[in-house]
């Protein structure tokens, strides 16, 4: 799953999809899109609006806290600004968390992420 579908997240999603990886979730600041069978990343990226949001144009979006609770092999953090706070870190159900930008995890939340 990719938390943040801006420049870094979009590029990463496109490349991983092209290489055959299954991406089951992506998020923007307003919500997330999740499908345990995998997402059609090129279609999702075509539907991004001028603000970089995808959840407004794709049906069945979910809340960010629900997104963070979904089980996944890897959660890739591409959004800035301490997006992972202590209360959210306690609910994350990812086997691995990859932080691609600085300060996406609040310092106090690190103890809950084995970081």
From TrEMBL:
The keyword Transmembrane does not apply. Residues 2-104 form the Glutamate/phenylalanine/leucine/valine/L-tryptophan dehydrogenase C-terminal domain. GO terms for molecular function: glutamate dehydrogenase (NAD+) activity. Gene3D superfamilies: NAD(P)-binding Rossmann-like Domain (3.40.50.720). PANTHER family: GLUTAMATE DEHYDROGENASE (PTHR11606), GLUTAMATE DEHYDROGENASE 1, MITOCHONDRIAL (PTHR11606:SF13). This is NAD-specific glutamate dehydrogenase. It comes from Gracilibacillus boraciitolerans JCM 21714. The keyword NAD does not apply. It comes from the Bacteria. GO terms for biological process: L-glutamate catabolic process. Keywords: Oxidoreductase.
């Amino acid at each position: 799953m990719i938390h943040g579908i801006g420049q870094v997240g979009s590029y990463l999603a496109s490349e991983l999809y092209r290489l055959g990886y299954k991406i089951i979730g992506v998020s923007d600041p307003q919500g997330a899109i999740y499908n345990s069978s995998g997402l059609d990343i090129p279609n999702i990226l075509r539907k991004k609006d001028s603000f970089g949001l995808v959840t407004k144009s794709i049906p069945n979006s979910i809340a960010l806290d629900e997104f963070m609770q979904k089980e996944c092999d890897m959660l890739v953090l591409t959004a800035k600004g301490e997006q992972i706070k202590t209360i959210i870190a306690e609910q994350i159900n990812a086997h691995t968390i990859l932080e691609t930008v600085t300060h996406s995890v609040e310092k106090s939340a690190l103890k809950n992420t084995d970081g």
